[in-house]
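Action item from last week, closing it out:
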Amino acid sequence: MPDFLRRVLFLFAKPGAVLEQAGQESAWSSFAVFLVVLLASSILSVIGNFSFFSMIFGASIFFEIVMALLVVVALWVAAGALHAFALFVGARNGFWQTFKVCCYSFIPASFMIGVSSIINAAYRFSVMNYSPVYLWLLSAIYIGAIGYGAVLQQKGLVMLQGLSPGKAWAAVSSALLIFLVLLLGLLILAVMITWYYF
């Protein structure tokens, strides 16, 4: 089994071993693993969102490229915010160790974007088109992926930054809270703009 595939699979089966190995590898190696998973997820999203009826395949590809770029920017911003909170609670190592943790913690959510697009395609052509079951399933996928990413961040900060589990949770929770507040603000802004223009 190739090393890349082993790391991605073991991230779900043996996260401690993967994060321990991440401490020894370069930050760019961790970033490359994340980028490959993001590329695979984007390809799944293009396939899942393709509609023969709308014939906007080019728009779907453009949208996935923009979304992938936004996810990469979000990774760097999240790594900076998490490192700032980790420093506040006593992190011992540099930014790149936190960056490695963020690279691996973003993999579940990035992968679930592609999986949810395939689920979306299956439901689009089924009888249960946009039923509550569909919405609950997608919500569970996203919440689970974000929750597992938070667990990976906590475990990674303990292993790579030398924080106690409680301090690591404080750093992860603070960064996640800031993220959720910003996300809520963007949602409110989007609703306000939509009401104003439409």
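Closing note: Residues 3-197 form one domain.
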